[in-house]
Amino acid sequence: FDASEALQTDPAVSFLGKSATLVSKSGNTYTYRFTVSAFDPQGAARFSVSGRDLAGNTGNNDNTDFVIDLNPPIFSAVEGEPALAPQGEVKIGFKSSEPLAAPPFVSVNGKSTVFLSQTGNTYSYSYSVAAADAQGLATVKILGSDPAGNFGTLMANPFTIDTTPPNITISGVNPNPFVPNMLQRTAIGYSVPEPADIDINVYDSSGALVKALGSETIWDGKTGGASDANGDGIADQGIYTIKISAKDQAGNQARRVE
Fold this sequence. Notes:
Layout: E1 12-15, E2 18-19, E3 21-26, E4 29-33, E5 43-52, E6 58-68, E7 75-81, E8 84-85, E9 88-96, E10 105-108, E11 111-112, E12 114-119, E13 122-129, E14 136-145, E15 151-161, E16 169-174, E17 186-191, E18 196-203, E19 209-214, E20 218-219, E21 241-248, E22 253-257
Parallel strand pairs: 8-15
Antiparallel strand pairs: 1-2, 1-5, 3-4, 5-6, 7-9, 9-13, 10-11, 10-14, 12-13, 14-15, 16-17, 17-20, 18-19, 18-21, 21-22
């Protein structure tokens, strides 16, 4: 601060009722230091200056320009979209309890993310999931500071990385061969060790689609038009191929042929 004229002695400066220490003086310009402790009250802080000029006149100044803030920002409402993430982009959103000095640093499993946007104290980031990323719960770390320099951090698991296609095991077709004209049906056996959307299709030797079964595992020999030389709606005698496709909840796809 500056004094308007020369003083008899260095002015007395107190902060929160405690004395501050003179650091430097240049002419009528003074610098004092006061160390804030964890026990000092939060919020607006008053300091006062008292000095006497060469004629003995006393001047005082009280000010409340300072705010004490020892509380770190708190991060919450961390979300990942999609919550079950295949290879590709994941958007990460969260909130801060107070304004920050700058957008916080955000990482996923120790890898950097890309800042997208900020609306008030709500932040959005992007992370690109690669095939080499570790499977399972992803650890998101958020580190940021408020304008007072208090650092806050949070670790959360808002989404799961799954880049592995489902494993389809075809156990066979039974009976094989079968005679649909004698009202026989054949059962297609398969297994997938995770929830998945299944699509089963029957093809003839030329590669033409004979019957789309969807998730149905029983084929009665009926055809959708291909391999039906006599037009009776029953597939002609021959060898047919079963193709099973599976898409898991993360969107990973796999196909097996029998």
